[in-house]
Specification:
mainly alpha, two-stranded antiparallel ribbon, 16 helices, 73% helix
Amino acid sequence: MRRPPLPFLLRGPLNSSLALIWTITAATTLLQAANGLLQVVMPLRMQAEGLSVSSIGIVAAAYGLGFSTGCFMAPAFIRHVGYIRAFASLAALVAILVLAMTQAHSTLAWALLRGLMGVTLACIFTVTDGWISARATSSHRGRILSIYMICTKIALMLSPLCIGFGDIRTDGLFMAISAVMSLSLLPISATTTKEPPAPLGVKIEVGTLFALAPSAVVGAFVVGLVNGPVIAITPVFGVSIGLSQERAAALLFALQAGSLLLQWPLGWLSDRADRRYIIAGLAAGTSLISLFILFASAQGAQNMILWSFAAWGGLALCIYSVCVAHACDIVDPGRIVSTVGTLLFSWAAGVTIGPLIGAGAMELLGPQGLFIYSALASAGLAAFIVLRIIKVQRPPAGGGFVVASTNSTAPTVTARTDMEAGEREASDQKLASAVARDETSE
């Protein structure tokens, strides 16, 4: 019998590349499904045990600190044991940490476990991003990474809705999360493909990059300040304004869905203008939507709240991508790796500080304090970018906007330049070893 033709997307060399990355895509999708559910279960469990919103903010800040630490530990660890053994050992460790959370009853215990999980997940996502980027060739890297992004984003988006299958006060949901994380070991353990080359370290140059692209550095930092607490505390916010646990979990679904829908249109738009206009517009829009969320929550309009969260996610969760693309437009191709690492460091600094401020705002002003803080911080970023546009005029972006990878944090992108083919390939190989995050997630 004649085999039916492959879909257009899977024909030719692209099909062989997909065969090389299906194991890491399957493993990461399982891991992100578990991680997405954990983002809802963990803050609600802490709230149920009587921990304050400030304590939840401290735990979220510990994750940011651990994640930024893990980003720079990862390359050396992968060079020492290889990609496959690194993923297997780290996935097993993160599953154990989830089980240990069932015995955490103090802020210190939660913060310690969440910080260790930040270190572990940073290393895992370095493995997955490096593997995907190295295995996809330059002729269809964008399509390969888009498939990877869609799979992991959908898992991260849908898994919070599973909170209705268990009781937040028992350990069943944590056990299920640990089991799914353990299942992510199976595709990697069974793979017969060759590992990519080991990654190199990333040099952090905040001062140098700020002198070249201050809008990108400040933008990445403020994205961490705002997105970190909103994603970490949204389930608690939802319950605090009277939503059920299932409805509160749906708010995270809405955030990720909005980001998934608007990522590409905003990227296309940013290719046709000075990207700073897009950053300023997204920041101003985030500020306005934050105020609208306050209005909707005061009215108790649950459907309006859900749609406004989708709009917030579509705007706020896409700013980081444009910031990285803007910086990569400016720096030399040979400095793209350091640029991505520096912006990641700026984002991680914001994620470490932001949850403390956001939780403090909720303690002082009630649940609405979270989005009052979001509105003010986003408006501040928009004002800064507008001042930069007035001070320094730049031509429209000269390259393409390519989403390189995604996970629970912030998307990493590279800007296409007018390099010759050989230089572009060399840059792609360097970028494959960069510590690269999507936000989204976390």
